[in-house]
From TrEMBL:
It comes from Bosea thiooxidans. Belongs to the peptidase S58 family. The keyword Cell membrane does not apply. The keyword tRNA processing does not apply. PANTHER family: BLR5678 PROTEIN (PTHR36512:SF3), D-AMINOPEPTIDASE (PTHR36512). This is Aminopeptidase. InterPro entries: ArgJ-like_dom_sf, Peptidase_S58_DmpA. Keywords: Aminopeptidase, Hydrolase, Protease. It holds the Pfam family Peptidase_S58. Residues 324-345 are annotated as: Disordered. One of its GO terms (molecular function) is aminopeptidase activity.
Length: 345
């Protein structure tokens, strides 16, 4: 059975996790992976669906915070301008952004005959990290069919973590990185709400990692190097928030990364996208005015703490669940889970 961070007696913060301690604790959210392992190829796509319906017709309020912009993602400019997402989110490697874009366009056109005819075009959101240390990124092995497979695999419930999907070839703090998730549960006006984080962890210098108990694991044979990694955070919540509030929440993902020892180096692409599943935006809304529910700003610290704790834990879950991996040209990354087992949890 795969061990997660809490199985080693380590916790991040003071808030309670959701039942799954995953982004799928947010009702309606689904996650799927497609992993490609073939010789020097260790890569894949990860797909996140905010709801089961047609996202172009029922868009989600959203925001993006670019912590450090050394990245090649697609769709972020319009997301920031309009404060909404209208496709599933795809995560992959840097040179597969165009492939993911094409796959999301293909699906959106198939489901909406009016796109590009009686209405506007569509804004796919694709996010990336560079998996070229462990995988032959120049092979450009990912195809639209691989993206479709990740989209079709999306499901609610427990989430596969570690070296899966987009996380197959990622590295973090000199250890094997990958996909990780965590959530927090809290009450507002006597109703229960959730906030979940999905992290694609591919960042951090060896020796900089700080565990919740203060230990600083150093991978064997670690060598100093410039910070050229990246991290993608996708944040979901069922709390009603408008896009400005969602950006404020997304920005606090950086606090969770800082707790880990990250400093967002010059060559690091660190991006957080946040969305709320409450009150979808109707593409075909006929009214001139629409009602908008939003959290009382004086209560938003609850979400700030939740995103900070869940981000820290999501990254560590990615690293703990990922096995030691040898990839392209014999490049190797040890497992943080193995380090914890060898050093008393």
């Amino acid at each position: 059975m795969t061990q997660r961070l809490r199985d080693f007696g380590l916790t991040c913060g003071i808030m309670q996790p959701g039942p799954l301690n995953a982004i799928t604790d947010v009702p309606g959210v689904k996650l799927g992976h497609h992993t490609l392992r073939d010789g020097d190829i260790l890569t894949g796509f990860t797909a996140l669906l905010p709801h089961d319906g047609n996202l172009f017709r029922q868009k989600m309020r959203a925001a993006v915070d670019v912590i450090n912009g050394f990245g090649k993602s697609a769709g972020l400019m319009q997301l920031a301008e309009l404060g909404q997402i209208e496709t599933p989110l795809l995560l992959g490697n840097t040179l597969a952004v165009g492939t993911g874009f094409d796959a999301l366009v293909t699906r959106a056109l198939a489901a909406n005959a009016d796109i590009g005819r009686r209405t506007g075009t569509v804004n796919p959101v694709v996010l990336e990290c560079n998996d070229g240390y462990l995988s032959d990124i120049r092979a450009r092995a990912l195809t639209e069919e691989h993206a479709f497979a990740a989209l079709d695999a999306a499901a609610s419930g427990p989430v596969a973590e570690g070296a899966v999907g987009a996380g197959a070839g990622m590295t973090a703090f000199g250890f094997k990185g990958g996909i990780g998730t965590a959530s927090r549960r809290f009450d507002l006006d006597d109703n229960g709400y959730s906030l979940g984080v999905l992290a694609l962890a591919n960042f951090g210098n060896a020796g900089d990692l700080v565990l919740p108990d203060g230990r600083r694991p150093v991978p064997p044979r670690a060598r100093p190097q410039a910070e050229r990694g990246s991290v993608i955070l996708v944040i979901a919540t069922d709390v009603p928030l408008e896009s400005r509030q969602l950006q404020r929440v997304a920005r606090r993902g950086g606090a969770g990364l800082a707790r880990l020892g990250a400093f967002w180096g010059n060559g690091s692409g660190d991006i957080a996208v946040a969305f709320s599943t409450a009150d979808p935006i109707e593409h075909d809304q006929p009214a001139d005015f629409v009602a908008l529910r939003a959290l009382n700003e004086n209560r938003i610290d609850t979400l700030f703490r939740a995103i900070t704790e869940a981000t820290q834990e999501a990254v560590l879950n990615a690293m703990v669940t990922a096995p030691a991996t040898t990839g392209r040209d014999g490049h190797h990354r040890p497992s943080l889970g193995d380090w914890l087992r060898e050093n008393g949890g």
